[in-house]
Write a structure and sequence with these properties.
This protein has 323 residues and is mainly α. The protein has a domain at 74-299. Helix content is 60%, strand content 1%. The protein is rod-shaped and about 115 Å long. The chain starts with 6 loop residues before the first helix and ends in a 24-residue tail after the last helix.
Length: 323
């Protein structure tokens, strides 16, 4: 279960705002009438029936009914489902991290002197075993890519969690600001968005050129995507720039609601900016992984992600192609 506010908690607070805003609006009008009569004693008071009708019209109106719907976008996506998806990716990453290349290392040692040799053995070592073993290997890059995807998912989870926390706090602080309307300290009420303080924990994908299976020239071409795949955020980057508290308090109900509306816009636009950055980063990684694999296939050599598959040998087939 997520530690962030639930969708129901956010909406429960948001639904408290319209009736409270109407109540405060009526109180303001009554206070205004009393103040005007004190300043101008000879002024005739409004007919009580007229005031009663006006209060009833405010209570029955839909003037603030839009407010709960304005909070609803911040209840999505479902953070528990997002965590389930992240956990499945985390398991794949852990499976890659556990290794499993021991038998490949053994096979590599048994080839050559005193064992299987010749053109087929050489090609098998160069095109499959070498790229699949060691620090500069295909599994190492697969592990790095899986780790980056997991870390990005964790960042995305934190992003939406921070936005959800902000929406919940905004609803509660709006209620506090409405209750404080007319109070000398009411205008001091504000909100610092958590989304602006969240920190990036991964800087893209750290990949390395693969040893074996390609010439230096071909390797340079096939590995061109590495630096681009690394692109994206820098570790320690903030999701969005911090710019101080957002004011919520005001002297009137209309002022509080206006401040709340502006805070919602600010939260929404900040969330969209970070979503766009994540999408750009992930799209760039996908495009370059696809590009690298395509270049490797055209060249007939291993890519940084996928080894060559040995072909069945016949009189018209070489030993280094892809099937």
């Amino acid at each position: 279960m997520s530690d962030y506010p639930t969708a129901d908690q956010i909406m429960a607070e948001a639904r408290k705002i319209p009736p409270l805003a109407k109540k405060k609006m009526i109180e303001e009008s009554e206070s205004w009438e009393e103040e005007m009569h004190e300043r101008h004693p000879n002024t005739k008071k409004y007919d009580p029936r007229l005031l009663h009708g006006w209060r009833y019209s405010v209570e029955a109106s839909h003037i603030y009914d839009w407010i709960p719907a304005a909070f609803e976008p911040f209840t999505k996506p479902d953070l528990d489902q997002l965590e389930t998806l992240t956990e499945s990716m985390r398991k794949s990453w852990q499976a890659l991290h556990s290794g499993g290349t021991g038998m490949l290392d053994t096979a590599k040692e048994q080839l050559g002197d005193g064992g299987w040799d010749g053109a087929l053995a050489t090609n098998f070592v160069n095109n499959f075993l070498t790229p699949m073993t060691g620090e500069r290997s295909i599994p190492a890059n697969q592990l790095s890519l899986a780790e980056a995807l997991v870390k990005n998912m964790e960042n995305i989870h934190e992003l939406y969690g921070a936005a959800r926390s902000d929406a919940y706090k905004l609803a509660k602080q709006t209620i506090t600001a409405l209750e404080a309307c007319g109070d000398c300290k009411g205008s001091d009420i504000g909100l610092a968005l958590a989304i602006t303080g969240a920190v990036i924990s991964v800087a893209g994908v750290a990949l390395t050129p693969v040893t074996g299976g390609m010439s230096l020239v071909a390797g340079a071409v096939i590995n061109t995507g590495i630096e681009v795949v690394k692109g994206g955020f820098a570790v320690g980057d903030k999701f969005t720039p911090e710019d101080g508290d957002i004011p919520l308090g005001a002297d009137t109900t209309g002022g509080v609601v206006k401040n709340m509306s502006e805070a919602l816009v600010k939260l929404s636009s900040g969330l969209e900016r970070v979503e766009d950055r994540f999408i750009e980063c992930l799209n760039r990684a996908y495009q370059n992984v696809t590009l690298v694999r395509g270049e490797a296939k055209k060249s007939g050599m291993s890519s940084i992600f996928m080894p060559l598959k040995p072909k069945l040998i016949d009189s018209g087939t070489d030993l280094t192609g892809l099937d």
